């Protein structure tokens, strides 16, 4: 026991002697000129340490410094690249002898960093790189042995009033990032420690302010980092932001396997504007391209409230036409992604189109985006889509397969395009492919084939039976005013197939049937100009009774030509009255021939 006491006394005495020597005979400020000169030789920069350096020795060993600045390269503005108001680093002395680190205090206050990029491309970082090629390699075993620690305890870390100014002289832009505060409370291995921060950023087109708090824990073997109860609130404001302001809030927990380089995040709640979500994200960053797996559940999404308000027609007319040609979107970033995403969404509204119960699986790998599945409820029906975008070339290519079943077509068309043209229960399928994602090229380059059928519906904007009655009356010389009836033609089925090439949809077999009439023909719909061009033939089944006609109609069984022209928004319908007259005269002539034939046969005794 006496030996141990004498040994401890000797150690303490040595520490005191060293402390007295350093305090009385060793002044760290004597080395300031040498430090400044070394920085000048290494970087060509001016280092200024305005305040005196001061030591602390027992029970902590540390250094306090302030008034430190490091210059930018010659000719740069501002002249200082780094300015520090005050920095303190203190480590408890005694635990160091047992390979334990106890940091009493780490604090940084009033740091300003000015990072300048000049018009000629030079920057504040020029000349600061260190050539490590001449440094002797440290054996791995030696490094591991020297780095081994039994414990780490931190009394607290505080960073306050730190500002980074990113100055781009070519763009004449300055971005300011301010860390108002970052604090880490009392920290020890295997124990949770509180963290908090307050951050803001000012950029040319927006401002960001964010604050958060939570707690973290590091395992004793330094392989597991856990963050719990992290809540971050952020406000983004700017002209380019939806409604000029976006508020977000996220609550999450995360685990990082530092040895396996894997990260998992459990998002308990995420809100952005009126959108709410929850989900899980897993990241394996041990590979060359990090592998990301995500599964999100979202609530109601109204994208119409987030999209910019459309300008008035007058403002649009006055706006100058864009002279810059459209360019292909840069999708090269997809080559650096290895992502699998799964989304479920309660409802989505966009461009006034409403859908519900989304289920979507998306994969991105090697520059190819695969939408393997998209299911949704669409106007009392179902939507099923699969698609692929290949961005491995400068001009992306794509292909898709889309099916719609049991959809009420009238409210869908009214909401999506403000077109009141059709009603009924629609089934629709189309497969297509193409190249280029420029909107105009999308329409021109798309090659597609499909089929549709609409049951128990109506064609709005035209009353074909009324048109026939009116034409029939005029042919007979009746010029009395037409009766006003609803412009609608009911049908039991409307079917057809189509192909799409060079922006024009060709429909060779349009067929419509109802208890009163049959309609068949072909036509085209130009997606670029929205022009319609259909030539159809209508024939009455028996009579127009029930839609204002007589029990037996003179036109029953006669083919009646019908043309549809105009645009998607304003279709125009017209009967070919000349052809109608010729068909009726032919029908009457045929009837007269039959009567004459019957009369002659009777006179000849039935032969």
What are its keywords?
29-stranded mixed β-sheet, elongated, single chain, 607 residues, alpha+beta
Biggest beta sheet summary: 29 strands, mixed
Oligomer: single chain
* Overall mean confidence score, pLDDT: 81
DSSP E strands, number: 29
How large a portion of the residues is in β-strands, by DSSP E?
A: over 45%
Q: How does the helix and strand content classify structurally?
A: alpha+beta
* Contiguous uncertain segments of 5+ residues: 132-147, 311-321, 546-552
Radius of gyration: 40 Å
Dominant shape: elongated
Would you kindly provide a written description of the structure presented here, covering whatever features stand out?
There is one protein chain. With 607 residues, the protein is an alpha+beta fold. Helices cover 17% and strands 50% of the residues. It contains eight helices and 29 strands. It has helices at residues 2-24, 32-43, 140-147, 313-318, 409-417, 439-445, 464-475, 577-603, and strands at 47-49, 54-56, 60-71, 80-92, 100-117, 151-154, 157-168, 173-184, 187-188, 193-203, 206-218, 224-237, 245-257, 262-272, 275-284, 291-302, 338-350, 353-365, 368-378, 381-390, 397-408, 422-435, 447-460, 488-501, 504-513, 517-526, 532-540, 559-566, 571-575. It has a 29-stranded mixed β-sheet that branches. The chain is elongated, with a radius of gyration of 40 Å.
Explain briefly what this protein structure is:
The protein has 607 residues and is α+β, with helices and mostly antiparallel strands. It has helices at residues 2-24, 32-43, 140-147, 313-318, 409-417, 439-445, 464-475, 577-603, and strands at residues 47-49, 54-56, 60-71, 80-92, 100-117, 151-154, 157-168, 173-184, 187-188, 193-203, 206-218, 224-237, 245-257, 262-272, 275-284, 291-302, 338-350, 353-365, 368-378, 381-390, 397-408, 422-435, 447-460, 488-501, 504-513, 517-526, 532-540, 559-566, 571-575.
């Amino acid at each position: 026991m006496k030996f141990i006491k004498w040994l401890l006394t000797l150690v303490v005495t040595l520490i005191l002697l060293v402390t007295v020597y350093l305090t009385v005979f060793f002044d760290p400020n004597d080395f300031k000129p040498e430090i400044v000169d070394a920085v000048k030789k290494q970087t060509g920069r001016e280092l200024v340490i305005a305040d005196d350096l001061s030591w602390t020795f027992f029970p902590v060993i540390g250094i306090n410094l302030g008034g430190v600045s490091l210059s930018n390269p010659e000719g740069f503005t501002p002249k200082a690249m780094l300015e520090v108001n005050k920095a303190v680093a203190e480590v408890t002395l005694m635990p160091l002898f047992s390979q334990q680190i106890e940091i009493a205090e780490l604090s940084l206050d009033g740091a300003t960093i000015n990072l300048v990029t000049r018009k000629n491309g030079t920057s504040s970082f020029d000349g600061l790189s260190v050539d490590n090629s001449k440094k002797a390699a440290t054996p791995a075993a030696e490094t591991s042995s020297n780095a081994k620690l039994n414990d780490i305890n931190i009394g607290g870390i505080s960073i306050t009033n730190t500002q980074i100014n990113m100055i781009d002289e070519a763009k004449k832009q300055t971005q300011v990032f301010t860390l108002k505060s970052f604090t880490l409370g009392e920290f020890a291995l295997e124990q949770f420690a509180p963290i908090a921060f307050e951050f803001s950023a000012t950029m040319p087109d927006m401002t960001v302010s964010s604050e958060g708090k939570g707690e973290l824990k590091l395992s004793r073997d330094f392989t597991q980092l856990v963050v719990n109860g992290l809540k971050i609130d952020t406000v983004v404001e700017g002209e380019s932001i939806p409604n000029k302001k976006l508020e977000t809030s996220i609550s999450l927990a995360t685990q990082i396997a530092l040895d396996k380089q894997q990260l998992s995040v459990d998002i308990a709640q995420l809100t952005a504007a009126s959108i709410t979500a929850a989900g899980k994200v897993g990241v394996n960053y041990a590979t060359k391209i990090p592998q990301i797996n995500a599964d999100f559940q979202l609530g109601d999404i109204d994208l119409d409230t987030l999209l910019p308000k459309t300008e008035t027609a007058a403002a649009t007319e006055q706006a100058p036409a864009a002279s810059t040609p459209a360019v292909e979107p840069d999708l090269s970033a997809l080559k650096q992604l290895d992502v699998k995403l799964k989304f479920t969404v309660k409802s989505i509204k966009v461009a006034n189109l409403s859908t519900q119960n989304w289920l979507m699986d998306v994969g991105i790998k090697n520059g190819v985006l695969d939408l393997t599945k998209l299911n949704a409820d669409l106007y009392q029906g179902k939507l099923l889509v699969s698609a692929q975008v290949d961005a491995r070339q400068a001009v992306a290519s794509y292909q898709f397969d889309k099916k719609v079943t049991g959809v009420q077509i009238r409210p869908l068309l009214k909401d999506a395009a403000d077109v009141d043209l059709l009603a009924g229960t629609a089934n629709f399928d189309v497969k297509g492919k193409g190249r280029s994602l420029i909107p105009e090229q999308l329409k021109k380059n798309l090659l597609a084939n499909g089929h549709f059928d609409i049951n128990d519906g109506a064609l709005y904007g035209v009353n074909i039976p009324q048109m026939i009655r009116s034409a029939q009356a005029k042919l007979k010389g009746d010029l009395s005013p037409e009766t006003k009836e609803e412009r609608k033609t009911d049908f039991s089925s409307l079917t057809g197939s189509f192909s799409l090439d060079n922006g024009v949809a060709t429909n060779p077999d349009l067929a419509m049937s109802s208890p009163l009439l049959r309609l068949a023909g072909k036509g085209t719909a130009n997606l670029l100009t929205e022009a319609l061009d259909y030539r159809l033939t209508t024939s009455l089944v028996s009579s127009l009774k029930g839609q204002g006609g007589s029990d037996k109609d003179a036109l029953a069984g006669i083919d009646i030509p019908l043309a549809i022209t105009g645009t998607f928004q304003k279709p125009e319908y017209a009967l070919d009255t000349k052809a109608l007259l010729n068909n009726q005269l032919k029908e009457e002539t045929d009837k007269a021939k039959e009567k004459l034939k019957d009369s002659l046969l009777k006179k000849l005794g039935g032969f």
